[in-house]
Every structure is written in structure tokens, then in C-alpha cells.
Amino acid sequence: MSLIDFSAEEYEVLSWLSHLMQGSEKGVKIFEVDAKTGEVKLVADPPMKLDRSSLFKILDRLESRGLVKSVFEKKIATCVRCGKGLFQPHLNCPACSSEDIEKVIVHVHNCGASIPETLLSSVKTCPKCGDVLERKDFVNSHGRFVCNSCGEVFEHPEVVSECVSCGFSAKASDMVYLTLRRYTPTESGSLLLEVRSPLRVLLRKLLEEGFKVSENVSLRGVSGATHQISLLAVRVEETRVYEVGYFVDAETLLRFAVKRLDVEKTSIPGALGRIRWIMAGVEFAEAALKTAETFGVEVEVVKVA
After folding, report:
1. Which one of 174, 196, 215, 246 has the largest count of C-beta atoms within 10 Å of its C-beta?
2. Quick one: 228 exposed, middle or buried, by C-beta within 10 A (0-12, 13-18, 19+)?
3. Which domains can be identified in the chain, with CATH numbers?
4. Minimal CA–CA distance to 6: which of 71, 70, 66, 69?
5. Which residues pair with 28 in a beta bridge?
6. Parallel, antiparallel, or unpaired for β 298-301 and 274-284?
7. pLDDT by residue (tens digit) across 62-95?
8. Three-class SS of residue 75?
9. Contact 73, 183 (CB under 8 A)
């Protein structure tokens, strides 16, 4: 796969999967169903505010490129009306749709007639051939369902599922099903994350320029809040406080601007010279650049290709 056509969305989703994989050996389950409400929920907020459809398209693309692998877990039915996944099953007679059915032993007469055992005490002759019913004339016996409303004898009832949330009912065969799979970044995917990581690229660059660099530093703000920053780079004439992302939107940049406003120089360990707050990323949304200009935050484009 060419690095050139590797989009920000693909990187963010691959990175998101890698983060969710920590401590898991079975792969990442994307969806789960709330046992109380039937809500079908993502296990974690996807990056870049991707909706369900977009997320699956990107996962399919990553899998087709060998960066992600998935295994089938199960399918869950979802209501075509409200989209939830919690149902009350009903077993109905396929002839009249009544739920008044029961499973009994059915005896097969030598003429082919099926006669429920519950009727043998009241029926003396075969309803099909008219012969007197005798035990020796039954050629087979098996379990069958009998409808107490219309008398139909059948092997399989009709399964109807009623949505617990909105009451909509449908045959099991007519339900909409969501396939649940577990996803895992492949070795190629993990390697590509490392190669394309703007934080790794920026860290190497800063070290080459003579900075002393620390990762994942906690800074205490005037408000009392603790702020995490990606990199703290210090050399004699300046100190750089970095937040690093792949795709930077306005919301991400605004959060970084708040940290800048809340943290004083004396709270930055080992700070020397001029303090520069820099938002670094591979791609920036136009709104993010405008937000940076408004709040006086520097931006730095990281070249990862």
C-alpha cells in the first residue's frame, strides 16, 4: 500500500483500534447491545466523530489493504422501526398465527395420517382412511406442534420477534441483522502506525535539533486542573509545549488553547527561555487554523510521508 493514499481517517481509525486493543487478546468488539434498553452502542467514541456507516467503510478499506483483520463473532437482530436490539420471541401456528400451540407426541398411521397422542382417547377412527385406530397400525411417532385454535399439526412453529422498546413485530426471517466482528490491527498495520506516527517523527526531529524531550507530561494549571501534553521539548533558548495529533480539528485545537491559558511558565518543569505552545499534526481542518489564529496558538505541519 502506498503511504500517499493513506488518509487521516484511516490513520485515526487504525490508531483508535490499536488503543482499544490494549489488554485484549481477542480483538476489538465495535458494538454492544445494552441488556436493559436494547440500544446498539459503539464500545467507544470513534475518532473524527465518524458515524457508523463511515466507520465500517474505513474498517473494510483497512482490511482490504491488510492493515486490519477481523473475525466473525455473531449477528444480532435490530428493529426496523426503532433500531434497537432487544426482542420478546413468540412461537405461532404457521396456519392461523395463534400462539396457543403446544408440543406433543404425534403418531403416524399406516395411511400417512398424523394423529396427536392427546386425541387418541377421544378419536376412535382415523380421520383420513376411516379405519379403527389400533396401536399396531402406527408406523412412526415423533414430536410435533399442535395448534389448539385450528388443529394444525406442524414440525416448526413460526418465530415472530416483538421489539421490547416499540412493540413492532416481524418474522425472524424478515428482521434486519447487524453482523458483529472483532477487529485487530495486523503487524503491517502496527508497523504503519509507527512509521506514520506524527509524534514519533516530531520526537526524532526535536532530538536531532538538540532538544531534551519528555513524552506525556502532566502540567498543573492555575485552575487546579491537570493537563496532559504530548511532548515537552527544552533547550537553552526556548521551551516548546506540544500537543500532537494526526488530524487536528477546531475542537482539539480549542482544548489545547485552554491548556495554554491555564498553565503558567513556573508550572512547566525545566522550562528555559521563551515558551512556545505548538499544535502539531499532519492535517489541519480550516476551522482549526482559524481557531489557532484567534487564540495565538502556533501550528506545525508534520511531514510523515
Report:
1. 246
2. exposed
3. 8-83+174-193 (1.10.10), 94-156 (no CATH), 197-301 (3.40.1350.10)
4. 66
5. 183
6. parallel
7. 999 999 999 998 888 889 888 888 999 999 999 9
8. strand
9. no
